[in-house]
Amino acid sequence: MSDTEMNGAESLVHTLLENGVEVCFTNPGTSEMHFVAALDHIPGMRSVLVLQESVATGAADGYYRMSGKPASTLLHLGPGLANGVSNLHNAKKAGSGVVNIVGEHASTHIALDAPLTSDIEGIARPVSHWVRTTKGAPTVGKDAAEAVQAARVAPGQVATLVLPSDTAWDEGGVTHAAHEPAMPAPFDSGMLADAAEALDGPECLLLLGGAALSESNLEMAGRIAAKTGCHLLSEWSNARLERGAGRVSVGRVPYPIDIALEVLEPYKRIVLIGARAPIGFFAYPGKPAILTREGADIITLAKADADLTSALEALCETTGATATQPAHVATPDVPQPQHGPINLENLAAVIARTIPEDAIVVDESVTTGRAFSPATKGAAKHTWLNNCGGSIGYCLPVAVGAAVACPDRKVMALTGDGSAMYTIQALWSMARENLDVTILIFANRSYRILRGELTNVGVQNPGPRAIDMLSLDRPDLQWVEMAKSMGVEACRVTDCETLEAAIETGLAMPSPYLIQVDL
User: Fold this and answer.
1) What's the pLDDT at 282?
2) How far is CA 31 from CA 17, 166, 170, 446, in A?
3) CA–CA dist 414, 395 (Å, integer)
4) Which of 17, 224, 263, 419 is most buried per CB count within 10 Å?
């Protein structure tokens, strides 16, 4: 087909494919039907249907984290985009590249103020780095290529392209060739000498985030720590962290503000590579928002959008650590079999025992999972994905995207019952796509983290009405039944022995499997 015979929707699909976008997480409507038709007869694009738009945007986030390539979403007008905003917020905070295609009314229809007319660009801007509305079929391909280019800007950006339906059905579409990915920004070489000088003992901290947490970059950080005596930590929330036996292990800045203040108090000098200076997730009465000690010297060597590998290489060379054996390499450490009722400590041990080699762990366990990180540092090598934006309902959609990106790797999704209810529709897409995901739902029947937050903000002795607003009983959620209704095999466990057996069953299957873990 020549360019002159294309409509705008066809040029969009061809351009996305030409630019390396090969997956579309979709929940289309009437205004997107020509794009659907183009996907139908143009080979090469994998289309994954989801039942709620936040599953689409979260899946695109997970796909980018594991593939390093942007996927597209296909969303229906402003309300469809609005449904996906929560996980676009998380994707933006994680530095994930996403190309949103959002249908719009035909240009001749917008003036009529039909029921679904809305300010799509206004909805998109807070959760996008790049927003554009296509003006006509001849420019669809060019706009799509520039959207992909924007999504590739390091560490990854959210790009939203609004596609009026007449630009999709009109003829005159033109495919645009691939653009070279944008190079990351240079690190601040002017701060290199100061950073190297600052890292001179146990009162110094090298704080890492973003791409600094790859296996090879962590090894360089371990060399620097061994040479200088500095300590290593990562941010609390990390888009992707390589962990397990044989890799350099880094702890995380704790989430609870009092514990974080205690952990960070010793450090007089902090060097940042890919991380921000630590702050509290929320403000609390009478507590500081800045978590570092007063007067701490904080040196930013490289922000998250910079070339973090080059920054670590340069710091390694400047500190004379290039030939030093790395410190903090995790040794194999598999806990003993656990017995009896499940609690937070033995739950962490069971997970550490069962993580398979090269697994992807998607974590939204919030309060339940605070013991997971230390317990699993010596487990089999694995990749750990955190929620970087704090908007709940992230885990199951991100697990969809990770499993699509890495079909040869096991995916474990760890989430609380309150969080999972936000995007439970993801189970249906897992079943439809036969994705290799083992899901653990931690059923404590409450928004447990918010009970702690009541105390943190100064509310003492909350009454039954307050507790009731944070509870998920009356009625209890029946996870096994919900999963099976969406085509996912499931079981319920109440003790450590059956939990470990259930995880092994799920991991042995090539399809999704859900475990309701009663706590």
Assistant:
1) 85
2) 21, 9, 13, 40
3) 7
4) 224
DSSP of 104-169, one letter per residue?
E--HHHHTTT-TT---HHHHHGGG-SEEEE--SHHHHHHHHHHHHHHHTSTT--EEEEEEEHHHHH
Distance set, CA 110 to CA 165, 336, 436 (Å): 11, 64, 43
Tokens of 3: 């360019």
User: How far is 123 from 334, CA to CA, in rounded Å?
Assistant: 47
Q: What is the pLDDT of residues 23-58, one digit of tens each?
A: 999 999 888 999 999 999 999 999 999 999 999 999
> Domains of the chain by range and CATH?
3-169 (3.40.50.970), 189-318 (3.40.50.1220), 344-518 (3.40.50.970)
For residue 413, give the DSSP letter: E
Residues 6+ apart with CB under 8 A from 386: 236, 237, 238, 239, 241, 363
pTM of the model: 0.94
Both tokens of 121, joined, read 């660009």
Closest alpha carbon to 245 in 409, 385, 381: 381
Burial-class residue 185 by CB neighbours within 10 Å (0-12, 13-18, 19+).
middle
Whether the Cβ atoms of residue 101 and residue 418 lie closer than 8 Å to each other: no
**336's tokens:** 């003993």
Query: 471 forms bridges with which residues in the sheet?
Result: 446
Provide the β-strand partners of residue 493. Answer: 517
């400590």: which residue's tokens? Answer: 345
Q: How many CB atoms lie within 10 A of CB 273?
A: 30
Residue 425's nearest CA partner among 47, 49, 37 is 49
Beta-carbon contacts of residue 203 (< 8 Å; ≥ 6 apart): 266, 267, 268, 269
Q: Kindly list the distances between the CA atom of residue 206 and the CA atoms of 224, 247, 336, in Å, as whole numbers in the listed order.
A: 9, 17, 33
Compute the distance between CA of residue 7 and CA of residue 267 in angstroms, rounded to an integer: 60
List the end-to-end C-alpha distance of the chain, in Å, as a whole number. 59
The whole-angstrom separation of Cα 251 and Cα 235 is 9
Q: Which residues of the chain have pLDDT under 70?
A: 1-4, 445-461, 465-472
Tokens representing 220 are 């360089």
Contact 236, 209 (CB under 8 A): no
Residue type, 354: T
84-102 pLDDT per residue, tens: 999 999 999 999 999 999 9
